[in-house]
Amino acid sequence: MTAETAAQELLTVKDLRVSATRRESQDLHVVDGASFSIAPGERAALVGESGSGKSVTCFSVMGLLAQNLRVSGGSIRWRGNDLATAKREEIRRLRGPEIAMIYQEPLTSLNPLMTIGYQLKEAARRSKVGRREILEMLDRVGFADPRRIMGQRPHELSGGMRQRVMIAMALIGQPKLLLADEPTTALDVTIQSQVLKLMYDLSYEMGTAVLIVSHDLSVVRKLSDTIHVMYAGQVVESGPTDSVLSQPRHPYTRALLSSAPRLGDTRERLESIPGIVPTPDQWDAGCRFRSRCPLATERCAETPPVDVVADRSSACWHVDQLLAEQKEATPL
Amino acid sequence: MGVLSVGTYIAGRLAQMIPTLLLIVTIVFFLVYVVGDPVGLMLGDNATPEQVAAMREAMGLNQPVFMQYLNYIGSVLTGDFGESYQYGQAALPIVLERLPATLTLAIGAILLALVIAIPLGVWSATHRGGVIDSVVSSISVLAKAMPNFWLGIMLILLFAVTLRWLPVSGAGSWAHLVLPVIALGTGTAAEITRLVRSSMIEILSQDYIRTAYGKGLRRRAVVYRHALLNAFVPVTSITILQFSTLIGGALVTEVVFSWPGLGQLLVNAVSQRDMALVQASVFVIAVMVLALSLISDLLFKAVDRRINLG
Amino acid sequence: MAESVTLDSAGTESAPPRPPGSSKRRSWKARLRSIPLSGWIGLVCVGIPAVVALLAPWITPHPPASIDPSQALLPPVGMEGSDPAYLLGTDNLGRDILSRLIEGARVSLMIGVIAVVLAGSIGLTVGLVAGYYGKWLDAVLMRVVDALLAIPSVLLVLVILGVLNPGMWTLIFVLGITNWVIYARQIRAEVLELRERQFVRAAQNFGVPGPIILIRHIMPNVLPSFIVLSTLSVATVIVTESALSFLGLGVQPPDISWGLMLTTGRDYLATAWWISTLPGLAITFTVLGILLLGDWLRDALDPRLGGRS
Predict the structure, then answer these.
(1) How far apart are CA C292 and CA B141, in angstroms?
(2) Which of A33, A51, B89, B196 has the most CB atoms lying inside 10 A of its own CB?
(3) Lowest-pLDDT range, A10-14, C141-145, C298-302?
């Protein structure tokens, strides 16, 4: 978030706003004021409850928003170029060799009628990579017999295998940034960490930065350097993972932490924060968490100040009180 | 997934066709022999009672209905539908001789329909809600509403009578085929356009289409390779179902253009009460439609191997 | 009682049936405004022939069957040699085209509506019974349906017409008994789903007899599909009727039908285009209206039928 370093950043999203066109009423903003940045090789995470706009943010970076959605404000700077205003063709050229993405649903993300080999070759051709490298890549994502996989169709593979194929497809062009939208949510619990490890190991070897979208703090804690907490279409807190999670500077981050699954816990969603995420038509200029926040006061109806301390930033009126409460709670 | 299982599958499907065909033959039999009066139909109103009695005896109509039915099924099994009194020949060969002309017309119409419908359907799906989409939708509703025989008459009026570009009717050259094929294919084209449009809209919202865009593929590659391939199954399925309707339409179109196919033969046979010919025609057309549905199923299996055989 | 209901219906209550009159409490003005343009076009295209058909005996400018060789082959008004008394011209026997079109509307719509009522009653009954009682009855009925779907319906119509004497009532009968198949299929599919719903299960648990459940609980829920299918069937029947009459197998002179008018017109294509052009336009106009009306009804009445996507 620090402006001085913008030149060396890979991706800088600033005040991003994504709007949904509605037939009978005014446009609805589904992301409204999201800012964060990613440096080359960085492992970043975007966390928050469902409905906070994490996936939509990812798709707007890729230029792959659904038809009724569009970027209506802010900027998405990719190595100096603003993708929010770029031509479609310019963004298309980036997909594959520069930015790649892994999706939530491996079951439906591959064309059912095309062989794995064909679909990989399509991706490889964009980055001028040949058959030998494809086979090598399949080997690296853990297929014992890459040649056989090439001739198979998606329905012949398990969910985990398909997600490995997706990883191979995304990384075949050695992109600079990999966006991973809840890549293991749809997978069997037993193989989730295996797939994640594979994704991170390969990215590390290639020097690819990773932005993972997740609602699972235990995953994020282990695997990412920085964390951006999203709530109701905004990034409310950003910073190095360790310091954000050990000393949150936003009450929402604290709430997420206290509701996070412990080791061995397999709940799918974080549901224990009282109340629900306000829907986009309820968003206003004030702090959007105030309806569920134990610290909320009248002042929270005003736009909270962005508080930048060293490599961290957050937006809350009551940081001091929050920090004080944490000090009390910490055992001596 | 081997040759053997494909063979077993085809055999199974062929076996399934038998009861359907039997049912059709039975329905036709009871219509003609029980509801109708075949002797009266054949001899006309001027026959003497003696003639009628002799004819009934000769045709075995004095036997119990059940025996008649068995006899009838027996002869159908040997391909014998009786003799056409108009032609004085066995009915089945006459029908089979006319079949190629009808098939030429029907296949021509289907091809024309596909050539028109696929680009139009894809175009309106990818430009959904736009001007072209509305124009295509309006034209296809209109084309569906126009009876094909009237369209045929209008085409003759314009291209044969007024402009004199093409022959009015008959067969024998490629030029003779043009107008009947347009008349017959237009309605089918409208139907398939709507289908291509709706399948493409559905397919274009699938996750794997997003993946294809995510790989940096061009729009054309995504639409015409990834999406259209997946539209192939539903479109082929409806196209083949349309074939049945199309054959029905061909019967009338043939009369408009004096096209020497099954349709003309059948309409003539019905108005002349030549029931042997009618029964043979119905049988042949039913077999054709059933065979087509089998072919379409096999085609899907070839394309879409997710569907398991059996 | 309550327990068995919840047990039976666990997870099947995905889309509860609309309680009568609940969701649509909008004023008639709001309803009118919600009709799309195509719906309006449909209403107009169907409305005109319908009104004309009802008033036919009083509004024909000439007796539709009266022959006047001295007035034969007059062109429509506006063309050289036309007579203002014959607005749309005359045919080869000097009969007034406009009057014949009006009378033809009456015949075509009457055949369409009566045949569809007949087909609809058969199809609805078969669909309800096959879907609700299932088992062997369903198996037998559906085999018949499949067999009938395997042959073009025109073919079956031709066979029956070969046996019976042609005429208007034969035609209605034939079209009625050959068009019920699509109803049976659609309604059966819906009943199969409905009979697993909670409200049907509850009625069964209360010991309500089958026929009552079918009529009171299931039939209202298949009504939207029934209405849409019936509308579209009228179009099919009108086209089939005109095709058969055109072939000389349907309506017989002196009765009048649009299809029959086309037969005459075909012989005079080179000299009197209006004889064949105008009845065809009348068919197209009416059928277009019915198709648009059907599409709109489908969208308005039942999202399950999946209208324009």
Answers:
(1) 8
(2) B196
(3) C298-302
